[in-house]
Automatic annotation (TrEMBL):
Gene3D superfamilies: Ribonuclease H-like superfamily/Ribonuclease H
Matches recorded under Pfam families: Piwi (PF02171)
Organism: Clathrospora elynae
Source organism phylogeny: Eukaryota, Fungi, Dikarya, Ascomycota, Pezizomycotina
Feature: compositional bias, Basic and acidic residues: 80-100
Protein name per its UniProtKB record: Piwi domain-containing protein
Segments for region (Disordered): 75-100
Length: 138
């Protein structure tokens, strides 16, 4: 029943969770930093050696769509083996009504040799939809 109520609450634009703590001397500085920040999480899972040849990789990203980090949208894409970067460039929904001042992106399982390419390619992929959003708002 509790899970059902939380789902209904989210559908009614309620808040089920937020980044808070009961210790105010700790949370006030934390809340100030999190206020205008969007936190994204992403991962790419590649097929194992035992997989069928040509089996695609799976790329996924999730991020909040509200100012309380309580409502999330995610996107998952299949990628062929030639393209191993994270999508969704244009597949993500529009961000909140106000653009975040900062974006913190967590990315799992990146080897040292691949790290520079991930930073170069994925930072621009994260920034791209926000540039489109700014243009539309003018």
């Amino acid at each position: 029943l509790g899970n059902f109520i939380m789902k209904v609450n989210l559908k009614c634009d309620g808040i089920n969770h937020s980044a808070r703590d009961s210790v105010s001397h700790f949370t006030e500085p934390l809340q100030a930093k999190l206020k205008d920040m969007m936190i994204l999480g992403a991962d790419v899972t590649h097929p194992s050696l035992a997989s069928i040849e040509g089996c695609p990789s799976i790329a996924a990203i999730v991020g909040p769509v509200d100012n309380h980090s309580g409502r999330f949208l995610g996107s998952m894409r299949l990628q062929n083996q030639e393209r191993k970067d994270r999508e969704p460039k244009n597949g993500a929904s529009k961000p909140r009504s106000e653009l975040p001042a900062r974006i913190l992106s967590y990315r799992d399982r990146v080897s040292e040799g691949y790290f520079g390419k991930v930073v170069r390619d994925e930072v621009s992929a994260i920034q791209s939809p926000f540039g489109d959003f700014k243009t539309e708002k003018k």
